[in-house]
Amino acid sequence: MEKEKLDLEFLEKLEKLRLAVKRLRFRSHLGERKSPKMGRGTEFSDYRSYQVGDELRYLDWNIYARFEKFLVKLFEEEEDVEVHILLDASSSMDFGNPTKFFYGKKLALAFSYLSLSSWEKTTFSYFQDKIKEILPLERKKENIYRLLNLLNEIKAEGNTNITETVKKYASSLKRKGILIIISDLLSSEFEEGIIYARYKKMPVYLIHTICEEEISPFFSGNLTLIDSETGEKMDILLDEYMIQKYQKALEKFLNHIESFTMLYNVEYLRSITSIPIEDLILKYLRVGGWIK
């Protein structure tokens, strides 16, 4: 297979996306309602009646002129939070056409680009059994080219350990951050790391990549399956019965992820690699409220 490579043409598509999308909208308090505070935010929220001690500059004089009521404007306080994008670079991601890893790279590049365009302080990292590299993008949009070069250099290899990776990464942050994790979730366990991040009151956005070949296997007959991360081999007869058994196991796995993310208030998006990134961002993420 010819090496999959990100190019400047994809960046041009991202620029068109940026123009179509008002801004990336990550909520810093998943599941918590923002408390309106006067004058400290940028987004108008609501009105309430004037109380002694309120600053007069927040009175809405147009409302008073029409209804002779003293109402104070309220604003949603928006915290300055950092966006951390973590990409799974383990061997299991190197599967499918296009591969889950190439699709994950495009997702990482797209979210980084939109995050920087929204003036968010952004950091990219990729991991296997641990974090392999951290690239601070800061708020400098020109750093997207550094990320592009890095993504074209890294390969999917080795084992993955999402729990230990997320635990160590989350504990290393000196200030509150939003975690965006892009992975196929084919790790022995991933739940504890995410639970830890939520315990630390970090919003977690989990992007689950899956390919068509995993949904509908195109192999049949006598096969030797090799675990891409452990090298373990298994001989099987892949007939109609085994395919049905596999699809039931896959459904159980996907249902578990959905239940887990709902229980721990994690934003979850499952994306098949056959869906163009542009469609995913413009249609699915807009419906989900991730962008505006």
UniProtKB/TrEMBL annotation:
SUPFAM superfamilies for this protein: vWA-like (SSF53300)
InterPro entries named in the record: DUF58, vWFA_dom_sf
Record-linked Gene3D superfamilies: von Willebrand factor, type A domain
Domain DUF58: 46-249
Record protein name field: DUF58 domain-containing protein
Originating organism: Dictyoglomus turgidum (strain DSM 6724 / Z-1310)
